[in-house]
Amino acid sequence: MTWRFDTRVVHFRPKGLERETPKAPPIYQTSAFVFSNLEELEAYFTGERPYLYTRYRNPNADDFARGVTALEGGEDGAAAASGMAAILAATLAAVKPGERILCPEEVYGGTYLLFTRELARLGIGVDFAPAQDVDAFARAFTPATRLVFLETISNPLLRVPPLPELAALARKRGAVVVVDNTFATPYLARPLEWGAHLVVHSATKFLAGHGDVTAGVVVGEGRFVKRAREIIAAYGCHLSPFEAWLAARGLKTLSVRMERHCQNAARVARWLSEHPAVARVFYPGLSHDEDRVHTLLGGRGGALVTFRLREGANVRDFFRGLAWIKLVPTLAGVETTVAHPASTSHRAIPPAKRRALGVTEGVVRVSVGLEDPADICEELARGLAAAEGNGERTMPSD
Ligand SMILES: Cc1ncc(COP(=O)(O)O)c(C=O)c1O
Predict the structure, then answer these.
(1) DSSP string covering 204-266, please?
(2) Is the CB of 336 within 6 Å of ligand 1?
(3) 108 is catalytic
(4) 229 part of the active site
(5) Does residue 252 have an active-site annotation?
(6) pLDDT tens digit string along 240-288?
(7) Which of 49, 55, 227, 280 is catalytic?
(8) What is the pLDDT of residues 130-141, one digit of tens each?
(9) Which domains does the chain have, with CATH numbers?
């Protein structure tokens, strides 16, 4: 067969490439998969072949989801384009129009918006209750409550709710339990062991771990994950092959990153709690939930530390006073970053409600990275001095 120029342009391909075995997984950067004949195509529809079209399923997305499934101890897992896509899929897998979701008052702002604004349009209702108080939470159930959505560690005040008790209560009332385990990761906590049906993650955070990926994942009971996968495909919120590849690559270092994140964060939390410009530090195990942190998080407090500036200190000057820690509306990178929840993650929550939840203007959340903790504290000291009105913004020498 001799091809003309234009055909050669389209069809060049090194011979035998597919026979090589790369050490790292290849990226299946393809929108669809090739079939040699109609019998092979039929094998996809009978379930003997897994891949047809990347929006439905892709090997890299599966590779990443399998990794998280193994770490969380689930039956199955499905990757999604973002944490919100994973939350949407998990939620729609469990609730129908006319049914209601019950979730903590301090739930992540994006989830709050999804539940109150978007799912409301589908006829799905939502009720909020204080997750720290099992009795109050129990009183918020309605006959239509079908899903209880929880978070392992709350944002930004980093409280750990009594999850096994809440999950048991939800199961008794016939509700499906979904836990957002983004802040804890399976390194610290595995909510499926406490009775959750599904776990969701913003893999954008610790699972991928380097601040260069937007991804999500749903893992847990097979029947719900199967439905979540169908929803991900139908809504077009699948994870792209390259992002999945990056996320799977990041996942391999989860243990070592989390261990160092936790050590550094505990040290930063202790240091902040002695600083005169700081009115209060929120860190699991330090400020509250001492026993729960031991039983639920294996004694580790996670990578995030939140603090409230003392009355009179200027939060804007705190951010201005920092020399190298960046103000970034995310968390979980290898670099330490700071965030202002009142103007980002909790912006969607009405101001009065936000204040009632303790998310005041002076609240700062630190995502503690992998740098030397002494350098992190020195840098935070710069910001705190500026907040107190006597800052000097100097970059440390290399
Ligand atoms: C706890 C939690 N859940 C879900 C999300 C949403 O994840 P994504 O931004 O990947 O959609 C976030 C984002 O910050 C989060 O903090």
Answers:
(1) TTTTT-SS----EEEEE-HHHHHHHHHHHHHHT-PPPHHHHHHHHHHHTTHHHHHHHHHHHHH
(2) no
(3) yes
(4) no
(5) no
(6) 999 999 999 999 999 999 999 999 999 999 999 999 999 999 999 886 6
(7) 55
(8) 999 999 999 999
(9) 38-251 (3.40.640.10), 254-387 (3.90.1150.10)
